[in-house]
Amino acid sequence: MFAAEYIAGYTIFNDFSARDIQGEEMNGRLGPAKGKDFANGLGPYLVPAADIDVLEAPMTARVDGEVWSDGTVDEMYHTFADIVEHVSQSETLFPGDVIGSGTVGEGCGLELGRWLEDGDTVALEIEGIGVLEHTVVA
Fold this sequence. Notes:
single chain; alpha+beta; Fumarylacetoacetate hydrolase, domain 2; two-stranded antiparallel sheet; 3 helices; 6 strands
């Protein structure tokens, strides 16, 4: 079987990271970095892989209604199948496991030189899946 055949569906995954803390952790090669089970949002729906052309689906990240990033999966260097194949080389994958693909578009706040603040509303949207929205509480 090809890796793509193991992908049940697609949803939106928001990985909130405290980049200032993450930077300190990475200097000492300590801390969870991206391998963490907290500060994540998932949803609003799981769309079966057969029901969406995820390569062409427009994706937008907004903060308080302002577009910070947009793009499509087709612009990513690695496909979802590539990511599944790579992860499965060192990890045992089970049905229901979730794998985040990384940032789509122009980048995250760190790459843009922008920081989230208390009260900001972050909305991630993928056409055909929906909108995942969170409010930052510091």
